[in-house]
Amino acid sequence: MCGIVGYIGTQAATEILLAGLEKLEYRGYDSAGIATIWEGEVNCIRAKGKLHNLRSKLELVESPSQIGIGHTRWATHGKPEERNAHPHMDATLRIAVVQNGIIENYRELREELKAKGYVFRSDTDTEVIPHLIAESLKNLPSPTLATSPSPFFEAVRQVVGKLQGAFAIAVLSADFPDELIAIRQQAPLVIGFGQGEFFCASDTPAIVSYTRAVLPLDNGEMARLTPLGVEVYDFAGIRLKKQPRLLNLSPTMVEKQGFKHFMLKEIYEQPGVVRASLDAYFKADWTAANAEGSPVNLNIDGEIFSDLEQIQIVACGTSWHAALVGKYLLEQLAGIPTQVQYASEFRYAPSPITANTLTIGVTQSGETADTLAALAMEKERRQGKEAKYQVRLLGITNRPESSLGHMVPRIINTLAGIEIGVAATKTFIAQLMAFYALAVDLAYRQKTVTPEKLEYIINGLRQIPKEIEATLESQEKLTELLAHDFAETTDFIFLGRGINFPIALEGALKLKEISYIHAEGYPAGEMKHGPIALLDAKVPVVAIAVPGSVYEKVISNSQEAKARDSRLIGVTPIEDGEAAEIFNDLLPIANVDELLSPILTVIPLQLLAYHIAARRGLDVDQPRNLAKSVTVE
Ligand code: M6R
């Protein structure tokens, strides 16, 4: 939540900062602001609402400044008003600060500062930082420590030692116009190296148009950016030797490429995501007849999988839905009892573990505060126990360079590429693919399934990309037409059973988060235990009916909804017989094995949500109140 960016170099900073913030807007868009240094003064401009409001304001200001910091906000402390927008400044308006995260002890710091006569202009936790730096500069011994590169750096370093919480910060001062200080403590921050210009940002898309040489800071590190280069220190002020690496990301990957919205582009990228996952996870030459070793290559040492008795998965939102599909696969294929927990609940009431329990954290961003905290807690409670406990932690993430990647040594990288739309689509499909690979691998290790069955599953998976392509082609128009009918609908119900129950949840989540229509997902068999009371002609029901263990049951449950006058939309490969009679509308998919069906059934639901939101004229990529990375509890 919140995006920060900083620039120091030879070009005009304002446009670079704005372009960077545009790429970070997915992290929050309640307000935006930038601070630059020009003619010995800090020039700070802020605006409530989205970045275009800030742009309009900046058109009136001319500043060829070559240093600056910027921020796009997701409000935590203080309403989304201009006075709470970042950057925040000290009393003399010489120091400007942007922050992503939360300063947990800000109340006591604020009281201490107030007692010294400091006056606060905002309700934010961040405003304590510029005041503390000003105070620290005042009290700095002269001359400053010989080991410190500059008084400004030293003052900032001393303040960082007083801050508690998870944060990334960028600071500049009109009195030190050739320095920009960037700090990371449990919130992402990457440094970019250009030709005579240097950057810092919450995420790489903000700087990829200027440089691909990047250095992600680790927790407890701070960087001093000057026109001459970048120095990295730890919080004790010890200089560290660090080398940038080359980013595997091109500027076009973070463009819409002709699509109206990032979400639509990302929906269409899903066949490619499945192909990339198949290539990476499954051995091309493995066959049942030649079943030497696992068909899966996850690059994880087998130690964490030996004698597994139980798996517990922690995640939030869409990742939690992917984990529910994972549970089905892990239990039904590999025979391992699996629990899926909301990370925010698990942290305060963890299930008991044994030495043979594997804990998996799933987070596309790798920055979700609840998931990270749950894993940190899990890591801690395993410490001091025998080695078996300690190795059984696994992360599944789309951003291996994230905080999760730093925290958990064993990671399955999902291969979605960067996702910009706030509503997760292709990262969900990528997570499903990771679970298919993990379940097949464990089924092989546990010998719960014959090699022939594994080969059948893998061959089925290999057909999926072209089935998604066909679904996209056939559903684009159909879902757009349906969206026309449902643009004014206020409630929706999604039904699924078995492996498609999580898809019903995901369909409902997609719809509510981007169209603001109330939607609920239920296991179809549960309807009669209460929720059926909600149904009438005004409440459409989307039912996922895939041939297999629960097809007849879902059809019966759909009948029950129909009897209450609901308009029924069927996501199903069966277009005739009973299905044709019951469903008012069909969203047909290919007839694949039930076990593989979630990768297909979710596609029409993503498209339906997209078209309804677009039809309602809503901001599909940046829905209200949301942010892509939820880095607060
Ligand atoms: O980055 P994560 O996968 O940990 O994010 C978890 C949720 O915040 C996320 O899935 C959220 O629910 C999305 N907006 C869903 O589209």
TrEMBL record:
This is Glutamine--fructose-6-phosphate aminotransferase [isomerizing]. Residues 300-448, 482-623 form the SIS domain. It catalyses: D-fructose 6-phosphate + L-glutamine = D-glucosamine 6-phosphate + L-glutamate. It comes from the Bacteria. Keywords: Aminotransferase, Cytoplasm, Glutamine amidotransferase, Repeat, Transferase. It is found in: Cytoplasm. One of its GO terms (molecular function) is carbohydrate derivative binding. Its EC number is 2.6.1.16. Homodimer. Gene3D superfamilies: Glucose-6-phosphate isomerase like protein, domain 1, Glutamine Phosphoribosylpyrophosphate, subunit 1, domain 1. The keyword Repeat applies. It is an enzyme of class 2 (transferase). SUPFAM superfamilies: N-terminal nucleophile aminohydrolases (Ntn hydrolases), SIS domain. GO terms for cellular component: cytosol. Residues 2-228 form the Glutamine amidotransferase type-2 domain. One of its GO terms (biological process) is UDP-N-acetylglucosamine metabolic process. Catalyzes the first step in hexosamine metabolism, converting fructose-6P into glucosamine-6P using glutamine as a nitrogen source. The keyword Protein transport does not apply. The active site is at 2 (nucleophile), 628 (for fru-6p isomerization activity). It comes from Cyanomargarita calcarea GSE-NOS-MK-12-04C.
